[in-house]
Amino acid sequence: QLHLQESGPGLVKPAETLSLRCTVSGVSVTNGNFYWAWIRQSPGKGLEWIGNVYYSGSTYYNPSLKGRVTMSVDRSGNLFSLQIVAVSAPDTAIYYCARVPRGNSFFDQWGQGTQVTVS
Amino acid sequence: DIQMTQSPSTLSASVGDRVTITCRASQRIDTWLAWYQQKPGKAPNLLIYKASNLLIGVPSRFSGSRSGTEYTLTISGLQPDDFATYYCQQYFTYWTFGQGTRVEI
Q: How many CB atoms lie within 10 A of CB B31?
């Protein structure tokens, strides 16, 4: 049974770095049939795709985040990570991790989400 | 950026009703569209992909269709469990979501 679980600080100070992890169980993050994604949701912006990462390390980021995003895969921990630098109030959101079947770029499995507040 | 314009933002309906939610893409997306259902406090849940393909396990009262750059989610015979917020999402170029449609009693 696939399960994704987000973890990380719920409160981040302005101008600091937001760091989240998504621990995956039920499938290996090195399974080449999937990408791994981060999406966030806020009352102001709705659902916003942040980026995708492949086990090889290749990444796709939302251009609107202007180079502030880094994603990576940790094979030994079977998890993937998100960092957003220089955060500000608009980065306050619920952050979800999700799975993306390769060749079909919808999000077929999601974590439960974690609230991150910038204040 | 491809913009997804979803309407209506809120829809009031009763059990048994047929409801239709529309998503218009700002440019061609060639059926690379998904529909999700989200309930309060939960993550979105995939219902339909490639505009009209029902995910295994999703009730057949849900259906999706396309006309040009307009995509439609139809629920035929609304059930109590269907009162939720629905989102479209394109995956033709990057990934963008519609603003959501809240289906309320």
A: 16
- Closest among B72, B75, B99, B66 to B14, alpha carbons compared: B75
> C-alpha angle with apex A111: A6 to A91, nearest 5 degrees?
60
Mean pLDDT taken over chain B = 96
User: Given this model, what pLDDT does residue A66 score?
Assistant: 77
A100 Cβ neighbours under 8 A, 6+ residues apart: A34, A35, A36, A37, A52, A106, A107, A108
The residues facing B7 across adjacent strands are B22
Q: How far is B2 from chain A (nearest CA, A)?
A: 12
Report how far residue B29's alpha carbon sits from residue B92's, in angstroms, rounded to the nearest whole number: 5
Rounded CA separation B49/A105 (Å): 9
List CB contacts (< 8 A) between A37 and chain B.
95
Q: How far apart are CA A80 and CA B28, in angstroms?
A: 32
pLDDT at A103: 82
